[in-house]
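To the wet lab folks,

You asked to see what we're planning to order before we commit. Fair enough. Below is the target structure as tokens, and below that is the sequence we designed to fit it. If anything looks off to you, flag it before the synthesis order goes out.
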């Protein structure tokens, strides 16, 4: 089962994704994708680690090459988040021409190893602001990743003000 959870900033995506993962009865993994670059990132990572304490998740730090994440077969996996993963593949030591193709391929490979895959992503580029060429590449690639994953996902849920709205499949909890 693949569930893509999307929405704007601070809309309840992560909270909803964790609820879905918590319904899984087997081993639960939380794949954290944020790169620890800069003091802001380090503070966010520490805050997120503290928020996950005591929830029974096995945390795996995986900033790139998500298909190689160290998770058990037949487990439940939550990826937090596609926006970070996309940025890492584009900007952190990579010369991939089309990171969307690589990331989608990696997601498909990971989904074949696990029983439940929940992916948190972001809606970006809808604000009408003009961006640099590099940022426009990021927005384009993340949009393509979201579209392609939505095509093969069982469920696509958009969180709006904390309310899960099914766009494909059904709200799970």
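Sequence we intend to order:
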């Amino acid at each position: 089962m693949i569930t893509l959870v999307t929405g704007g900033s601070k809309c309840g995506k992560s909270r909803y994704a964790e609820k879905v993962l918590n319904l899984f009865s087997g081993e639960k993994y939380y794949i954290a994708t944020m790169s620890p670059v800069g003091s802001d990132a380090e503070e966010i990572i520490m805050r997120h680690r503290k928020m996950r304490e005591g929830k029974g998740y096995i945390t795996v730090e995986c900033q790139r090459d998500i298909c190689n994440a160290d998770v058990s077969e037949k487990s439940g996996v939550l990826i937090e988040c596609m926006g970070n993963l996309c940025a890492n593949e584009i900007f952190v030591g990579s010369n991939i021409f089309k990171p969307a193709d690589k990331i989608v391929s990696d997601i498909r490979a990971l989904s074949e190893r696990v029983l439940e895959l929940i992916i948190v992503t972001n809606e970006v580029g809808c604000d009408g602001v003009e961006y640099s060429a590099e940022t426009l590449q990021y927005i384009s690639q993340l949009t393509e990743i979201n579209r392609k994953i939505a095509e093969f996902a069982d469920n696509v849920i958009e969180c709006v003000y904390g309310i899960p709205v099914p766009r494909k499949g059904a709200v799970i909890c």
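Structural context that might help your review: The mean pLDDT is 91. The chain is about 40% helix and 20% strand.

Thanks,
Computational group
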